[in-house]
């Protein structure tokens, strides 16, 4: 391949996929190169811990790093702050959660489906040599969006609806994700929520999982009426959970 061909291919790649330079923000937390996903095929992708926290879980951490982190100020989100609200795996947070958060903050919403793009080797370093670019970490990019909008913080929540069946032999309830609108006999439901708060200005974060609610529910038959009752129970469970966990979040971090 001659030099002109190489330039043409690189320019084409820029037009089709874009070349994203490394950002100086949170330089140690930039995400790794990713491949395209099926998000365009209606496959909703959950945010991973790496999307939210960067690669902090794999960095070499010294004792000095830990002690320095202990001296940092805790994340605070005062009442009426402007925040971005994100639900993992959803293009927009559920309305019920938006309504509860709006009681305490001025909220904007953002997609909780990360953009998985291919890395493009078209960037140049200071010496003019080609380097392979990496996509910015999802949270780093979202902090930039929030900074442009003058938001104070980013609030991400990950949720899971689970069904449980009591195991008499083990004398404990065995939980699994609720799927296909089916429940075992003598089942319980619980709605798990985990929050992550990220300060836009500093990148510091706090994560918290409030106590969840559990409900015993009667077995649901295949009839339409029973199915509607089940849906109503799930909606009530979510509404009660949202009201409680948001109130707890505000009391904890304001």
Automatic annotation (TrEMBL):
Highest taxon above the source species: Bacteria
Q: Which InterPro entries match?
A: YafT (IPR058961)
Provide the protein name. Answer: Lipoprotein
The species this protein belongs to is Citrobacter enshiensis
